[in-house]
Amino acid sequence: MAEDLNPEWLVSLGTAQLAEDWATCVPLLREKGFETTADGLKALARLLDKANGRRTVRVLGFPQVFSTAHEAATSRWGFSYGYGGVVDDERERCTVCLVFRRGEAVVLGIGESRAREPHPGRVWSELMPWSPHAPDNLPRVLVWASSTAPDRLRFKYSPPAPPTGRSEGGAGRLVNAILKSPEDDTPRLVYADWLTERNDPRGELISVQCALAQLPEDDASGAALKEREKTLLATHLSAWKESLGPGVIELHFQRGFVERVVIDPAVFLRQTSRLFEHEPVRHLVAPALRAQDVSALAHAPWLSQLKSLELSAHPYVAPLTPEAFSRLLESRGLRGLERLSVQQHPISDLGLMVLSRQAPGVLPSLKELELIEADITAIGVEALATVRWFGQLKRLELKRNNLRSVGVEALAFASMRGELVHLGLDANLISDDGAMILGQAPRLATLKSLDVQRNHIGPRGAKTLLDSPYLKALDVLQLNGNRMGEAAMKMWVDRFRLAPQVGTPNIES
């Protein structure tokens, strides 16, 4: 958590402002990370003089303005506002300050408002309606901060003492090196040595897991390492999880650091968590994400470091609506995602159509898309299959939806060619007609895995799949739960006898 501004510093800043001693103000602000010039401070003073007018109460000075700016720069949402006080009289006025920070840019606006409801929406009409729930205002504040106007200024901000993973000695620098190069083992092993010298068992876990990562799965020499890994995790996992803050349900370590985490969104997103300050987390699972938590997730500063995001519903928590899912897709923090999984949230065709429209800009790196039991029909799939972005997907999982043969046709004959290697259509009511469409689609020639379980496919559809000249590259064909008949079953066994994971289909005629 950022250091609070101390009273002595605020008094010094206020005194320097009153004396128009800009040469003193500039280094004072630099101490707290704000970079500006004497001309910039003079411009701010003029804005304050105009907004404050002749009032002697409900006014703002530099101490109040930069307290608000410091709060914005260190807050979860990246913005904050302050005002000069409230009285129970609509005719009275007060000065309002709104500050937004993104990266090293700080936008600071000053205006005058009625004192009864002195929020930014009363000063800048584009911010209406102003919500008491801070994250709901963020999209409008983003637009406000992007526009130029005479009542707002821009400064630079560089945190004077950014939070590091471990502040003692050189630990912070070591952890930061790992966060910057998560694929490189060298900084991990250097840090492991540093911890081992201090009798911290985490150092041994890093060394053990890095060694295991270099060995083939079937290498017998890894048995002792695996046993030691198991012992370390059994002994210390609870303490390591507790140290990372509230709302962490489950951790998965890889090469000594947290790679995958399961969180309780209702707790995790409302608490200051140390997790992303310490660990190069790449995969996040957020079961039971509520609509009111979507904005918190969408604007979380750590979202951009994720490669995989999984959202699954919970029977005792209301699932996401298409509108809530659409708000998530407004986040630029998703640009690094390679996998997005949405399970049992009824985002419906509306949500999929929004995804189709937003994906090229918001999800440019996505390779794997899972929409499981999401209330999707052929309408949504047709929208998805018509965008050029669809061609970049490698894996598409649409289990337990309602595509039927019409939706299958949209996927199979999409105009955008790609290199899809997995297509999951389990329980989609596609029947023989859908199976025959799949078997006649040249676009699916790149498939290595096809899942058409529980789809009312009979002998005719099964034979079309097995005889298809376009599905010759399949390593896995899942046909469980279909009445494919004995002849088709024999064809399947002969072709996939080396694929026991597929199981035995229902052979009833």
Summarize this entry quickly.
The chain is of the alpha/beta class and 509 residues long. The protein has helices at residues 7-18, 22-31, 38-52, 62-74, 134-146, 171-180, 185-197, 201-213, 223-242, 265-268, 275-278, 294-298, 322-328, 348-362, 378-385, 404-412, 431-439, 459-467, 485-495, and strands at residues 34-35, 79-83, 93-102, 105-114, 152-157, 248-254, 257-263, 283-287, 308-312, 339-343, 368-372, 395-397, 422-424, 449-451, 476-478.
Task: Give a description of the structure.
- 39% of the residues lie in helices and 16% in strands.
- The protein is of the alpha/beta class.
- Helix 1 (7-18) crosses helix 4 and helix 15 runs parallel beside helix 16.
- The radius of gyration is 29 Å and the shape is globular.
- Mean pLDDT is 88; it is low at 161-169 and 498-509.
